[in-house]
Amino acid sequence: MIKAGIIGSTGYAGAELVRLLLNHPDSEIVWYGSRSYVDEPYADVYGNFFELVDAKCLDDDLDALAERADVIFTATPQGFCASKVSAELLAKTKVIDLSADFRIKDPARYEEWYGIRHGAPELLPEAVYGLTELHRDEVASARLIANPGCFPTCSILTVAPLLENGLIDPDTVIIDAKSGTSGAGRGAKVPNLFCEVNETVKAYGVTVHRHTPEIEDQLSLAASRPILVQFTPHLIPMNRGICVTAYASLKDGVSEHDVRSAYEAAYRDEPFVRVLPEGRIPETRYVRGSNYADVNFRIDPRTKRVVMMGVIDNVVKGAAGQAVQNMNVMFGIPETTGLAGIPMPF
């Protein structure tokens, strides 16, 4: 039985971790960490856990937790995990960090995009970027996982196969993404109030969104050369989901068969990535509540571009579900354990 502790268990990603781990046959939650609700019953914070969780919220003492847990999930703001994790801590337990602290290998680049000094640059070389479909072997032997962001997860899974196979011009990649409001977290912020987001769609973080370097780093690995992408996210009035529509110019002579073959080869053995049949457009509602990513494409012969499309649930595959998927691989149990839930259609 894997003993798991969650720091930040009362945020949206933390609560989703609780939901998934409670249904996981090989895990036990030993710590419901929450700085805001210390000593309050967890089920008082999220009523869906009434009579399912009788534990009270604890603090964010990672050192004490490391003595009790085989793995610690940190679903916390940027800067927290890097300020707390150490080689001594990692000698006692594994850490899966859901923030951006260990996703970007260059600390100067992290500081440029996130505006804070990195708290543990000495650990960056060993941190593994936890997009399991791309880095499964490294995840299996890791002590410290940088769980990917939600926008990068969907963007990378949607675009990477065509870059890896040299089918598109890497200098022409444009990513347009849309997210439900849960992606902004549970904290009270005026721009995320119901009246501010309902019946409207808006772009944000235009040219400066913090997920941009993470997307560029991973797509550069796929392309085997440095690339820049134009990434623009949008906020839309729904709770869950990310929809990515990406564009790139096709290389000369690339056919529809070539593109489909690249996707099918990349994801044929992946349990959570579904390549949809020709003509079917991915929809967020068909992955809601699940760890699935649906992808597809369409070629525009008029412009000689490919339109790449992908959808995920930002709280599951984009956060908690992916973290559990990484945990499964790290502990050598079947990757789908605790994650086989069927998407909710509405």
What percentage of the residues does DSSP assign to strands (E)?
15-25%
Low-pLDDT regions: none
Q: State the separation between the terminal residues, measured CA to CA.
A: 34 Å
Q: Give the class-level CATH name of the largest domain.
A: Alpha Beta
Task: Give the helix/strand class.
Answer: alpha/beta
- Number of domains as seen in the coordinates: 2
Helix and strand run: EHEHHEHHEHEHEHEHEHEEHEEEH
CATH names the topology of the largest domain as: Dihydrodipicolinate Reductase, domain 2
Describe the sheet with the most strands: 7 strands, mixed
How helical, in percent, are the residues? 25-40%
Overall residue-averaged pLDDT value: 96
CATH architecture of the largest domain: 2-Layer Sandwich
Q: How many strand elements?
A: 13
State the strand order across the main sheet.
8-9-7-10-13-12-11
- Outline: globular
- CATH superfamily (homologous) name of the largest domain: Dihydrodipicolinate Reductase, domain 2
Describe the structure.
- The structure is a single chain.
- By secondary structure, this protein is of the alpha/beta class.
- It is 30% helix and 19% strand.
- Strand 5, helix 7 (132-140) and strand 6 form a beta-alpha-beta unit.
- Helix 1 packs across helix 12.
- It is globular, with a radius of gyration of 20 Å.
- 48% of the residues are buried.
